[in-house]
Amino acid sequence: MDEYYPNLSPFRAGLACKCPRCGRGKLFEGYLTVRASCDVCGLDLRGHDAGDGPAVFIIFILGFIIVPVALWVEMTYRPPLWLHAVMWGPTIIGVTLALLRPLKGLMVALQYRHRTTSEQD
Fold first, then answer.
1. Cβ distance 102 to 17 under 8 Å?
2. What's the Cα-to-Cα distance from 61 to each of 8, 96, 118, rounded to whole Å?
3. 9 Cβ partners below 8 Å, 6+ apart?
4. What is the pLDDT of residues 43-101, one digit of tens each?
5. Would you say residue 36 lies in a domain?
6. A Pfam family for this UniProt protein (predicted)?
7. What is the pTM of this model?
8. Could you give the 3-state DSSP secondary structure of residue 42?
9. Nearest-5° angle of CA 1, CA 47, CA 59?
């Protein structure tokens, strides 16, 4: 290898949605589409696919946090059901959209770190 690439933390690069090799190039093209290659170091990113992993983690995270909070709100304040829908629907959608991209970036960075695609540099 002609160039030096720092040993980046997959957590730092992935959560920042940066290239897992150089840490400078953008990982995504659009909201969730992984770029074909890094525009800075040229890393081929086509083989990296997180699949449904990030969505599953978000389901677990939100289930662990939102369900107990919603139950606590119900037992403490007894709001009408429509208010639960108005409160928790947008909360769940907002947190999902906020976490989906960084968690997908983390999964791609972990794939790169552990060499799980067929072709690596």
1. yes
2. 26, 10, 30
3. none
4. 999 988 888 999 999 999 999 999 999 999 999 999 999 999 999 999 999 999 999 99
5. yes
6. DUF983
7. 0.85
8. coil
9. 125
Nearest partner of 108 among 43, 27, 38, judged by Cα? 27
- What SS3 state is found at 6? coil
Distance between CA atoms of residues 33 and 60, nearest Å: 23
SS3 63: helix
The domain total for the chain is 1
Answer yes or no: is 101 within a domain: yes
Q: How many CB atoms lie within 10 A of CB 14?
A: 25
**Closest CA relative to residue 102, chosen from 4, 14, 38, 13:** 14
Helix %, strand %, coil % for the chain, to 5?
55, 5, 40
Residue 93, in any domain of the structure: yes
Alpha-carbon gap, residue 45 to 108, rounded angstroms: 9
109: containing domain: 10-113
